[in-house]
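TICKET: design request
STATUS: open
ATTACHED STRUCTURE:
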């Protein structure tokens, strides 16, 4: 009951000086809003990075050709050092590997009737490509082992290809031509959207890698441009990477101490590094924004000191009629905490609105990947609690000063 009376007195005291109270609260509002906004945007960036690596596939490991010794012992990069046989061996012999697919890139215009489109991604892949990439089919089917072995002229296309060549027509079983090679459409991929750098992932045509090599490229070489591997779980990524390195070193006859002619890149490591970077930047931005909270706290202290000076005679009267020092201390402390809590609530609401608005603006003026709208509730709660602590910390000295006034001197104060 006593606390409610104190709270009512505090509210009445603040209402007497509305403009001053509003300006005092403003500092806390800006600080809380800044912290909430910065943390929310930082978490949005972090989720964006995580989502892009999830879109790449399930626990993906990328194997690229390295360098090997050419004539005269000179190191030559870019020479074909990976084969489809390497991909098959990885899938069969590495226990931590779920699936593997070779990748052979090519180019050309896709033509259907009077429509044509130059896709940025025309790739020859294996039958487990969709499993590695964690990519589903909207309709139709995917390549079989027979399609791979025979180099059948079939393809699976993305949503962008459907829109550019077929519009509203069903493309299944229709024939498109790439470099005058007819390819029958047997499937349509699920929509993925743009990646982190704004490239359209749905602008893609998948063909059996043997078809690309023998029919489109016209070569009998078995080299591939890359191998995509999916580990069985995130916890087995490191083990799978180690098994792949040992297997390929043995298959390529890499002696101890010699440089490998391949590169094994664990995308989880890259994702973790990016997560650390975004997390560090978020913490730095939140710390910078937190300085404004301290500034707001100093404002509260300043106003409360002025309030103590203005109300010295009132304090004397209260003490004269029986108020204890603890009552005076509690009264001014409640006023201080009330100012900071009101500022915290308004700042939290402003921060949520600002982070949402900034994310919408980013998505409005940028093409490609859309930033997820993230509202950091923990950051908002912590910010409000911190604002209450600011009120207690910066309000204690003025409240203590008021509680230690001598009643007789306070009554004489003009």
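STATUS: resolved
RESOLUTION: sequence designed for all positions
ATTACHED SEQUENCE:
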């Amino acid at each position: 009951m006593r606390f409610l009376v104190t709270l009512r007195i505090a509210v009445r005291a603040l209402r007497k000086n509305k403009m001053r109270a509003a300006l005092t609260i403003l500092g806390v509002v800006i600080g809380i809003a800044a912290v909430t906004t910065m943390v929310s945007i930082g978490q949005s960036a972090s989720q964006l990075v995580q989502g892009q690596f999830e879109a790449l596939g399930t626990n993906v490991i990328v194997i690229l050709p390295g360098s090997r010794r050419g004539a005269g012992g000179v190191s030559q990069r870019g020479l074909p050092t990976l084969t489809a046989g390497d991909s098959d061996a990885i899938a069969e012999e590495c226990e931590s590997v779920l699936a593997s697919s070779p990748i052979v890139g090519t180019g050309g215009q896709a033509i259907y009737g009077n429509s044509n489109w130059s896709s940025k991604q025309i790739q020859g892949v294996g039958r487990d490509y969709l499993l590695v990439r964690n990519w589903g089919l909207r309709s139709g089917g995917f390549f079989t082992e027979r399609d791979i072995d025979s180099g059948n002229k079939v393809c699976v296309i993305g949503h962008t290809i459907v829109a550019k060549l077929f519009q509203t027509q069903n493309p299944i079983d229709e024939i498109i031509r790439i470099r005058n090679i007819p390819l029958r459409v047997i499937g349509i991929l699920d929509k993925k959207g743009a990646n982190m750098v704004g490239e359209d992932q749905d602008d893609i045509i998948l063909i059996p890698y043997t078809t690309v090599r023998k029919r489109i490229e016209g070569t009998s070489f078995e080299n591939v441009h890359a191998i995509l591997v999916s580990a069985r779980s995130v916890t087995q990524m490191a083990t799978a990477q180690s098994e792949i390195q040992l297997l390929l070193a043995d298959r390529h006859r890499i002696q101890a101490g010699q440089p490998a002619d391949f590169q094994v890149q664990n995308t989880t490591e890259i994702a973790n590094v990016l997560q650390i970077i975004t997390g560090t930047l978020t913490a730095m931005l939140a710390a910078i924004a937190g300085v404004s909270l301290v500034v707001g706290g100093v404002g509260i202290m300043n106003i409360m000191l002025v309030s103590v000076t203005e109300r010295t005679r009132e304090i004397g009267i209260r003490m004269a009629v029986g108020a204890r020092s603890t009552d005076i201390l509690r009264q001014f402390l409640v006023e201080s905490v009330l100012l900071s809590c009101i500022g915290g609530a308004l700042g939290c609401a402003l921060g949520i609105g600002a982070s949402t608005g900034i994310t919408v603006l980013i998505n409005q003026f940028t093409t490609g990947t859309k930033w997820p709208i993230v509202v950091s509730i923990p950051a908002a709660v912590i910010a409000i609690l911190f604002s209450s602590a600011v009120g207690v910390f910066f309000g204690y000295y003025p409240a203590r000063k008021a509680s230690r006034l001598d009643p007789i001197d306070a009554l004489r104060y003009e």
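CLOSING REMARK: Residues 267-310 form the longest helix (44 residues). Residues 70-78 have pLDDT under 50 and may be disordered.
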